[in-house]
Amino acid sequence: MKKNNLKEKELLSAREAAIALNVTPQTIKNYIYAGRLKSLKTPGGQHRIRRSDLNSLGFSPDNKNGEVMEQDDLSLLFNQLFQNYLEAIKVLLTSFDHREGITAGHAIRVAEYASLLGKNLKLPEKQLQNLQLAALLHDVGKLEISDNVMSKAGKLTSEESLMIKEHPKLGEKIVDEVNFLKPLRGFIRHHHERYDGKGYPDGLSGESIELEARIIAIADAFDFMKSDLPYRRGVPMDACIREIKKCSGTQFDPQVAKVFINHPPRES
Question: What DSSP assignment string belongs to 39-90?
Fold first, then answer.
């Protein structure tokens, strides 16, 4: 069917709408499923689309809206896929929190705090997505450390402390095995570096530490302070904020810390 034959039709099938917009029928269906395009259902379950609803997408017979729609559709599908990845990772990671005696959901909360901080720092969308993934996976290297060490109730030996300090490097190796996670390697490796250069594993300082790692460092420390542990109760919000302010310029990037202090997470 040609476009010219569709110009006068007010009600189009998904296939006809696809022809009119120079896209695939699946693209039309994706827009319908995502709520971006209204449709009517025939008794047989087929989609019918009003021309007025196509016009609401900016379609006109003489423009290149189809090309734009394809790009927009790819972005829509990517975002849906990304959210599915996040949900799967959250389910997998929550079961590991008990190994340190920390309140369940540590990785998820760190990702939430890091995302909020990233938004307040005006990071672009792609950078925010990588930040969120890296924050979720920041402690994934601890999966390589034995339960005897991770779950030990008493004081760690110097050897055991060194083993735990290996987790950023172990985490880097784990994500390096997955192509779409490779951009996160440095953020995970360096989330325990300090702004003054006294962190680990590489002793980096200042802005030689990736911004995402500097953000995760604050989010991670905040959740650790705020959470109940076997040997102490969680620290109140105002005390957490005071501690971050106190460590600004030494442990934490002062500019990132300032934004966190000015826009703290809501108390749950």
Answer: -EE-TTS-EEEEHHHHHHTT--TTS-HHHHHHHHHHHHHHHHHHHHHHHHHH
Could you read off the pLDDT of 8-58 as tens digits, one per residue?
A: 677 888 888 877 777 777 777 777 776 777 778 777 777 788 877 777 665
**Can you give the pTM of this predicted structure?**
0.69
Digit-coded pLDDT (tens) for 48-74: 888 777 776 655 544 444 444 455 555
**122 Cα distance to chain centroid:** 15
Asked if residue 25 lies in contact with residue 18, where contact means CB atoms within 8 angstroms, the answer is: yes
Domain 95-262 maps to which CATH number in 3.60.10.10, 1.10.3210.10, 3.40.50.1820, 3.90.78.10? 1.10.3210.10
Placement of tokens 């420390």 in the chain: 221
d(CA 157, CA 231): 17
Choose the CATH number for 8-69 among 1.10.1660.10, 3.40.50.2300, 3.40.640.10, 1.10.340.30: 1.10.1660.10
**CA atoms of 8 and 114, how far apart (whole Å):** 52
User: Domain residue spans in the chain?
Assistant: 8-69, 95-262
Catalytic residues: 142
Across the beta sheet with 40-41, the strand order is 11-13, 47-50, 40-41
Residue 238: count other Cβ atoms within 10 Å of its Cβ.
10
Q: What average pLDDT score do residues 194-207 get?
A: 97
- Calculate mean pLDDT across residues 198-223: 97
